[in-house]
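Annotated sample (chain length 314).
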Amino acid sequence: MTFKMANWPEYEAGLRRRGSLTLWMTAEALSSWQAAKRTTRGGQPRDSDLAIETALTVGLVFGLRLRQTEGLLTSVLELMRLDLAVPDHTTLSRRAWTWQSSVGRQGRRVPGEGPVHILIDSTGLQVYGAGPWREEKHGARSRRGWRKLHLALDADSGEIIAHIMTDQDTGDASQVEPVLEQIDVPIGQFTADGAYDGKPAYDAVTSHSANAAVVIPPRVNAVDRSRIEPPSQRDRHIAAITTDGRMTWQAVMGYGKRSLVESAIGRSKAVIGRRLRARSFGAQQTEAALGCTVLNRMLACARPKSVRRIGTTA
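Output written by the structure step:
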């Protein structure tokens, strides 16, 4: 089975546009650059939340540290002949701890469009510490750790519609409920890998949307309990796998769509990076949130359309 890209000219143009500075310096950002005047006592803030968001986004996209981000934005605004102050690196570092997006979550469905098919998975992101080479060569004591980023993807649009960051020891299934709390539309189907198998994940999904189909492959040693209690979705999955085999069950349930969230994770690590630059947990959460927004925006600029090739071979 082979595929071809049906919209290559448009997709290629979108890929080039992803690197355009005009994509990040929008008219909205420039018009709302300065902070609104305070109506309470205290000092007057100079930089709006949108200016902080724009600066952090530009630095994240182009792989810049905070000082280099400050320098890039200064030169861009000078070339545009705009008399706007650029947030300094100290302000960017401080405001990143408590930053909250001024833009609504991308990928939120309009009410009335129908239930959404959710794909969920998690991945690890490195934080600062001695690298593997330094540890092996010099015996350096590593302070390296990990953060775990949990993503919920809309299977139809490919957009990230919810996310949460935790420490490396947090279990995947325990974050299903916090992730689903960010989704304000009905769920038609919830698909995840075997790490989410268990009653807590099923309960979290059905409490959000009672009629949602939960597609999670049960463990190899899972036991069908329908003989001693009312049959659940998990029991029906176990029975189907026992009767027809796991591969047939995956094909019937559409489990193969879960690869889309794995592709999104791979795209995130290729475009944004495998390592968090920020040191504090609050700033790391900001970095992860901006990364999700960037990926959604890039996806809106360029989205490939693949179609299956139909033909015979000699």
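Annotation: The first helix runs from residue 8 to 17.
Annotation: Strands lie at 3-5, 116-126, 146-154, 160-167, 187-191, 213-215, 306-308.
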